[in-house]
Design a protein that fits this description.
The chain has about 140 residues and is α/β, with parallel strands linked by helices. The chain contains 5 helices and 5 strands; from the N terminus they run βααβαβαββα. It binds 1,3,4-trihydroxy-5-OXO-cyclohexanecarboxylic acid.
């Protein structure tokens, strides 16, 4: 069975409570449920991880990439400055889709640059919780 790894970065465990005017009121659990439902219909298995720590995200990528055919990652604030996560992703052969709930290009200047995007197959930004579902559709099309 095709497996896809989904990684949620720092503070995304607070979705629903965290700045709902920007990130919406859907919780991370609800997003994961939507992803699991869609994946089940497509006969795909998901491994979903959330971490507030850069090193743990890198560890997850290193340990799990061999098991999966694609990766969806919302690096959250690390998007804008983590060369370490970028380097970890660069070393992988599987397609990676970068996801953001908010449209990072319509926000503060420091959010308008992603150091992750150049090492991804593509990026989806601005569709709230649907960004994750769109990322999953993109990977299903690629795989
Ligand atoms: C985010 C955008 C980032 O700038 C921010 O730091 C986040 C969430 C998003 O999904 O819109 O934590 O990645």
């Amino acid at each position: 069975m095709v497996k896809i790894l989904v990684i949620h970065g720092p503070n995304l465990n607070m979705l629903g409570k965290r700045q709902p005017e920007i990130y919406g009121d859907t919780t991370l659990e609800e997003i994961n449920r939507l992803l699991f439902d869609r994946a089940k219909k497509a006969d795909v298995e998901l491994i979903i991880k959330q971490s507030n720590y850069e090193g743990e995200i890198i560890q997850n990528l290193q340990e799990l990439h061999m098991e999966v055919s694609g990766i969806i990652i919302n690096p959250a604030a690390y998007t804008h400055y983590s060369i370490a996560i970028r380097d970890a992703l660069s070393a992988l052969k599987v397609p990676v889709v970068e996801v953001h709930l908010s449209n990072i290009y319509a926000r503060e200047e420091f959010r308008q640059h992603s150091v992750i995007a150049p090492v991804c197959r593509g990026q989806i930004s601005g569709f709230g919780s649907n960004s994750y579902l769109l990322a999953l559709e993109a990977l299903l099309m690629i795989l």
